[in-house]
Design brief:
With 440 residues, the chain is α/β, with parallel strands linked by helices. The chain has helices at 25-38, 48-51, 67-70, 91-98, 103-107, 111-115, 143-161, 187-195, 203-213, 230-239, 252-265, 282-287, 290-308, 314-317, 362-382, 411-426; strands at 16-21, 53-55, 64-66, 79-85, 120-121, 165-170, 218-220, 242-245, 269-279, 321-328, 337-345, 351-359, 387-388.
Length: 440
């Protein structure tokens, strides 16, 4: 939906409910983190909405405002949490099991609040996530019946918690790789497919459908074929709702979208980029299945090509060997380790190497992304922005784009697009860095 310059954004008044399909390591780290920040026992490091600033006007104006004061975003104290999971553990038990946050420093002070958050029974079909199974699962006569149960969950949650608005962020596991089929082409065919329990309709698509039908903006945090189909794009447009995805940009891909733009900016060549990961959380277990890994591999492999544009620069990037591996290693837990060997080429073709060993904490990097996406998607809905929110590409490994457009993967261009979108909604001049004599 095209925006007019300067938008009448409805204020972020009242409670915002954040619904999370999948209440494992990422979701519980996010929930506990927000609660810890509320109580003053932690800081929102990694969150653009909480710590970021935005420059307004010329550099000489020295006008740098906090993003959450510049635009109307929900306050952390106004957020309530809900979600679904195949395991019945409450948020405290799930956070203990995930082992991401320190039990004594961060979880014990929040125990009562976290124990009150219990997952609703999930929509689940094991053929889509082969390495997992759990007892807290919905039963239904058809996939449409399951979608209707999710819609009833959403309605009940909103009423019970007195929410004024809702957003949903998928934090569940990676489903097996699938491409769209005819059942995904139109909303009518998709709804017929739900009633017929069509084999090609995944649980994540049922959540997306149910949320959009209930007027809930939807963000897809995994590489699943979910909201990025003709049917659900049609539904989002029909409902006037924002959607965004896919696959949180956290560890190794984050580094690629930082480093690759630098190589291209300096016209340094690239012969090869070998990436391998070891991780031991539930995500690692799920990705140990080749079909689920394929979903992740596709989102990881596309990044470099789109940034480096080999068709424009065949001498520099026309023959890159790009390899991605993920290995399940239980002792590592949530502390993912990403190794990169990068073979670059300089003046007269002389080779050089860069080696990166990123000892990252996957859920620690993902939690602030969940927060930012929830707040920005709520903002987008209040601003009347519907359909694909390309300005949120900053957060995704594989950003959704309107048909016919390639995704922008350069982290710094993505950030400029995000901030310029905020400026645009306020009616302020966009920052283009043309130079002081013109603009800056």
């Amino acid at each position: 939906m095209a925006l007019k310059k300067g938008v009448n954004v409805k204020p972020a008044a009242g409670k915002l409910g954040i619904l999370l399909p999948g209440m494992g390591a990422v979701a519980t780290t996010f929930i506990a983190g927000v609660q810890a920040i509320r109580k003053g026992i932690g800081k929102p490091i990694g969150s653009l909405t909480q710590l970021g600033h935005i420059r307004i006007g010329k550099r000489t104006d020295d006008n740098n405002q906090r993003i959450n004061e510049y635009v109307s975003l929900a306050k952390l104290d106004d957020i309530v949490f809900g979600g679904w999971d195949i395991f019945p553990d409450n948020a405290y038990q799930a956070a203990i099991r995930a082992g991401v946050l320190d039990e004594h420093k961060h979880l014990a002070p929040l125990k009562k609040d976290l124990e009150a958050i219990k997952p609703m029974p999930a929509v689940f079909e094991q053929k889509w996530v082969k390495k997992l199974d759990g007892p807290n699962v919905k039963k239904g006569t058809s996939k449409m019946h399951l979608a209707e149960q999710v819609m009833e969950d959403i309605k009940t949650f909103k009423e019970t918690h007195g929410c004024d608005r809702l957003v949903a962020v998928w934090c569940g596991s990676t489903e097996v790789y699938r491409t769209p089929s005819d059942v995904h082409s139109t909303l009518a065919k998709f709804e017929d497919g739900l009633r017929a329990s069509h084999d090609d309709i995944a649980p994540s698509q049922i959540y997306a459908y149910a949320c959009l039908k209930m007027g809930v903006p939807y963000a897809n945090g995994a590489p699943n074929l979910s909201v990025d189909t003709g049917a659900l794009l049609e539904l989002a447009r029909k409902q006037g709702l924002p959607i965004t995805g896919k696959d949180f940009k956290t560890g190794q891909t984050l580094m690629k979208t930082i480093l690759a733009p630098g190589f291209k900016a300096r016209m340094l060549g690239l012969e090869g980029w070998y990436s391998t990961n070891i991780l031991g959380n539930r995500d690692g277990e799920v990705l140990d299945d080749p079909e689920s890994f394929k979903s992740k591999e596709v989102t990881k492999l596309g990044v470099i090509d789109h940034i480096l544009q080999p068709k424009l620069y065949p001498d520099l990037y026309g023959n890159i060997s790009h390899v991605v591996r993920i290995n399940y290693y239980p002792p590592r837990g949530d502390n993912k380790e990403g190794w990169d060997n990068i073979d670059i080429v300089g003046w007269l073709g002389y080779p050089m190497q860069i080696k990166v060993n990123f000892l990252c904490r996957d859920s620690i990097l993902a939690a602030p992304i969940v927060l930012d996406l929830a707040l920005f998607m709520d903002f987008a809905a209040r601003a009347g922005m519907s359909g694909i929110q390309e300005w949120l590409s900053f957060y995704w490994k594989s950003p959704m784009t309107p048909e016919g457009l390639y995704p922008e993967h350069d982290l710094f261009i993505q950030l400029m697009k995000l901030k310029n979108t905020l400026r645009y909604t306020k009616g302020d001049e966009l920052i283009t860095h043309l130079g002081a004599e013109y603009y800056d």
